[in-house]
Amino acid sequence: MQFIIDSILFSYSQIFFCNRRWFGAVALCSTFVVPEIGLLGLEGLAISNFIALLLKFDKEKIRTGFYGFNGLLFGASAAYFFELTPFLILIVSIFIVITFFLSATLEHFLASTFNLPGLSLPFISALYIYLIFITNYNNIIYKGFNFVEYSFLSEMPVLLSYYLQSISLILFQSSVITGLILITGILFFSRVMFINSLIGFAINYIFVNIIFPNPTNDVLLLASFNSILTSFALGGNLVIISRKSFGLIFVSTLMVIVFTGFFSKLLIDYLLPVLVLPFNVVVLFTIYSLKFRQEHSDLTLLYFQPGSPEENFYYHQNRKTRFDKFKYVFPELPVFGEWKISQGFDGEHTHKDEWRFAWDFVIEDDKGNEFNGTGNAPEDYYCYNTPVVASLDGDVVKVIDNVPENKVGETNLQNNWGNTVIIDHGDGLFSAMSHLKMNSIKVSKGDIVKKGDIIGLCGNNGRSPVPHLHFQFQLTDKLGDKTYKFPISHFLQKSGDRYELRSFSYPSENTIVRNIETHKGLMEAFDFQLGDELEFKCKLNGEEFYEGWEVKVDILNNMYIESDNGARAFLYPREKVFYLTNFVGNKKSALYFFYLQALSVPLGYVDNMFWKDSIPVSIAVKSTFRYMAEVVLIFGQLISSTVEKTFEKKINGNQSFIIASDFVNSGKYFMKWFKQGAKGRLSIDSQGVIQSIEHKSDRINFYASNKSAEV
Amino acid sequence: MAKKVYERPMIIKQYSGMMNKFGSAPASMPLSEIDGVPVKQLTEEWGSPLFVMSEKKIRENQRRLYRIFKSRYPSVQMAWSYKTNYLNAVCSVFHQEGSWAEVVSEFEYDRARKLGVDGEHIIFNGPNKSVEGLQKAIHENAKIHIDHFDELYQILEITDRMKKPANVAIRVNMDVGIYPKWDRFGFNYENGEAAQALKRIATSENLRLVGLHTHIGTYIMSAEPYRVAASKLVELANMMKREYNTDLEYIDMGGGLPSNNTLKGQYLEAEQILPTYEQYADAITSPLFDLKSSSGKLPTLILENGRALIDDAGFLISTVIGNKRLSDGRRAVIVDAGVNLLFTSFWFKHKIVPAQQNGSFTENSTLYGPLCMNIDCLREEIVLPVMKRGEQLVIKHVGAYSVTQWMQFISLRPKVVMTMEDGSVELIRDSEHLDYITSMEKIPEKLNAFSLQ
User: Fold this and answer.
1) Contacts of B3 (CB under 8 A, 6+ apart)
2) What is the torsion angle, in degrees rounded to the nearest 10, for the CA atoms of residue A38, residue A39, residue A44 and residue A50?
3) How close is the nearest chain B Cα to the Cα of A402, in Å?
4) Residue B164 and residue B167: Cα distance in Å, rounded?
């Protein structure tokens, strides 16, 4: 039953690029303002979904209205043009079946050939066939194109009336009331879409009058509802909203006007209406051409399951800030323990020009000394003789191991680089380690090394007055080649007596850094395997309930945890840090609070360790102020949602790892006064069992404990 | 002009213009303050004799050793050897620095638990573990290092009864080329007992083999034996991996690193002949990279160092009671700290220095403690300046074993204070008093009364 209701409601909301049931219901009701159109639309939807179900098409696609909405549009438009007779309804029913097959074909063709959405192209093709077919009959009466006049709305400004008519035309309704209902629904669903519709409409109105000297009402309306649909698609629903997408709306509206004129002239001979053809054409070729740019840093096309433009935007922004910097490999520091970067990028000694992106490593004690004793012998230096390891898996391609050690203070400029090992990591990435101690190198050319394998010992030769390790990434196996800027995947950076987790970042000069050493318990806790099940006893604001989770995988190989209430949290487990990328579904669930607490978790514990992360605003913030801020989303994000996480210090005998989170949602510019906070705790015992999830804010008091831990 | 300090007259032989290969006679540099706190102030406030522990020095030592190992091996865990110094304050400093607890008796186990260390972070060593102690340790998931077969059987019996698996390791002893061979603790490597014990554990249901342990001795003066020991443990670990696919969590290399105290038989000063900790670390860590593991993650290296971390963080301040001349003409100085407080003086030549600037002339002396016992001699021979009654001598490097092996004998044990990082001084163990000693005694009724004529 839920499935049938979903498939109906989502079919309606699909037309407006929306994925909300309530919006589908609003749209459904709005079509019944002119009952026969509403009825036939519903019939079209029902038949389409029935066939799809009968023929065993993908159930998930049926549920989300993928097959239903073209049938719905077809039914509605068929009723729109002609007086309904039982005979006609029979004909329409046959054509709905045709529409279904057409849409299944076209969707697949466009998706597989051009990687494009089908939009309403199937519907419009079917409609043209239908309209031409119908000319076989003389007794079917063409109704024409008339809006219902309401006397109580006679005072309505003309422009507003045009605007509402344009909106209602999307569902082939001839009533401004439908338009009013729809646009109210849209405003609640997405402020961005609402604004976009206004922009599209306004630009269209101005330019139609310039481009066509004396436009008829029909042309104006036609162009304007196409423009509104186009601005939905390109201004946030298929392209992620930005300042540039505003320009895209502008340009595409002009194109819509031109194409409206073109199709009107082209199709008039065949007595075919233009309808949504300009929208389909303009959107499809705009999106298609955008795919072939060299850079995709803006006007980003949707690459994930669409939500509202706001959700798309927040998700994309979040993903960008969190994961854009990630690389295809995860290099680590080439040493054990804690080291200081004695010379970083653009260093004052040797890291200049072509060799800018290199690091020198030394060891320092608490007092900041690099050596014990006089410092006159290399052995006095803490780093001397310590192992140097491979930063990544790779093949050893060059080994130089015969440059004699320097006395402290001397440099050997003949053999600048000293004893060096160069490793090929594949895909054109190489790393070089220099000044290794003579005769200490443990690998030879051709060896395959794994990340963390010992390469040799830190030494003092070549251009090296005091013992240190020189480390750089480069693009060839040449000794002393120019450096290549490539980050270290995860490391801890000391700041005061705390350690900050840095990800895909560049250790900077004079900082103290170390690798993450994984802990068995943490590894175990976040090692989610397919089919794992968990159950929690939860209490949300006094209300108690049980919630079960299961780990699943989708067709794109994305692992996720699914709660028994349908919510999903997507997993991105890495070697040293565990990530949750996204959350969809019911926010009154333990999984939602788990998502917030376990957004990112380093799999190793160090006292006083902290890290920062950010959450998509649509997931974190629930407030009318957010809706206010979204009116101007096109100019920038006014609200951000960040979190700082720490491992709570394990005091005497406390065996559990506790990840404490401090959430802050705050506004910028004129939303500066907006501030919300929340605190959370995630507790994991040393055996790797997630024990409890806690979340507290002004409005929320949540606690969940693992059922298996209770026993 | 200030009045000159009076110094009693003495006779010394003059060597004029003579050079020898050791340079001039050692002039003892006074140690007038500890961590910035004047020694005089310490004795005035807390009395004499007085043990002083330096928080700063402990942390420094711990961080240094950890740094040395951690920069040579990916995963290192220290475990504080309780028997070396189990004063709560001292243990807490180590635990704050991240050390686990290494205990060798139920008493020490309870101490660690009481201090707040959870079972999981306790390593339970030693040849004598009581049944109650073992039960506790199994219940609390401590890591039990088995010493002999009878203990192994005992543990098997307990785990069967408790229906709870135990986390165990075995202690292995072996020939590492040094004398004396420490073969009394643990299972011998060469005669195959160790391998036999491991197989017994691997085939039992209720024992989880989590590690291997060795402790090759104490005050080991060369790094090479450690390399041998580590290699032999790696052999055993790889054998277990091969035959039983056991992935060990850790390799425990014990302690035994020397401090900078000089042994009585040693001719040169300790600093001059001992290898550096870096050399020990190289020897210990380099064989470990041959360990085979299925995950690619090497087992954690556990270190149980005691002496090396605490010896030079402990000071014993004593006050001169008197001077005398012995029959053979030697000088003797009597101080208020004796062998009852400084058990280690039986084998160490401690560094003993005055706490105030004395005259520049020194004299060969014998240093006696306050006990009315012939054994109470801190040093047969020591070069000291002229000391007056009431002046202080500081005995350095007494942090290890002193406050655990000290005796209540003839007199009461003194206070122990800690100089804190912020410059303050805290009492960490009060001095004993008569009632404390007698409170444990019972007197039979018959002996209650007596009359003396």
Assistant:
1) none
2) 130
3) 22
4) 10
Cα–Cα distance list, A191 to A183, A237, A631, A633 (Å): 10, 12, 5, 9
The region that residue B284 occupies, defined by phi over 0 for left and psi between -120 and 50 for alpha, beta otherwise, is alpha
Test B118 with A654 for CB contact under 8 angstroms.
yes
Half-sphere exposure of A98 (CA within 13 A, CB side): 17
Same domain, B297 and B378: no
Contact A99, A51 (CB under 8 A): no
Cβ B276–A379 below 8 Å, yes or no?
yes
DSSP letter string over B320-360?
Answer: EEEEEE-TTS-EEEEES--TTT-GGGGTEE--EEESS---S
pTM summary value: 0.84
Residue B10 lies in a domain: no
The rounded distance, in Å, linking the Cα atoms of B66 and B301 is 11
| B242 and B368 housed in the same domain | no
Side chain identity at B255, as an amino acid letter?
Answer: G
A261-265's contacts with Cβ under 8 Å and 24+ in sequence apart are A261/A211, A261/A212, A261/A219, A264/A219, A264/A222
Rounded CA gap, A503 and A332, in Å? 10
Domain that residue B350 falls in: 33-52+314-426
Q: Which of B132, B134, B146 is nearest to B185 (CA)?
A: B146
Gap between the Cα atoms of A473 and A49, Å rounded? 56
**To probe the interface with A, which of B96, B109, B274, B278 has the most A CB atoms within 10 Å?**
B278
- Give tens-digit pLDDT for B140-161: 999 999 999 999 999 999 999 9
Give the lowest-confidence range in A36-40, A120-124, B48-52, B292-296. Answer: B292-296
Could you please report the per-residue DSSP string of B81-125? EGGG---HHHHHHHHHTT-EEEESSHHHHHHHHHHT--GGGEEE-
The reply to whether B344 and B401 lie within a common domain is yes
Q: Are residues B181 and B285 in the same domain?
A: yes
pLDDT tens-digit readout, A410-427 = 989 899 999 999 999 999
Closest CA to A195 of A234, A231, A158: A231
Asked if residues B308 and B259 have their Cβ atoms less than 8 Å apart, the reply is: yes
Note the Cα B217 to chain centre separation in Å. 13
Q: Specify the CATH number for the domain of residue B344.
A: 2.40.37.10
Pair (B221, B301) in one structural domain = yes
**Cβ–Cβ contact B132 with A under 8 A:** no
CB contact under 8 A, B296 and A336: no
C-alpha distances (whole Å) from B239 to each of A639, B232, B293 are 60, 11, 12
Instruction: Give the residue from B58, B60, B67, B76 with the most A CB atoms within 10 Å of its CB, the best one to mutate.
Output: B67
Domain assignment present for B281: yes
Domain count, chain B: 2
Q: How far apart are CA A193 and CA A211, in angstroms?
A: 26
What pLDDT is attached to residue A146? 66
Which residue in chain A is spatially nearest to B73 when comparing CA positions? Answer: A336
Identify whether residues B165 and B276 lie together within a single domain. Answer: yes
Domain termination residue (choose one: B246, B276, B305): B305
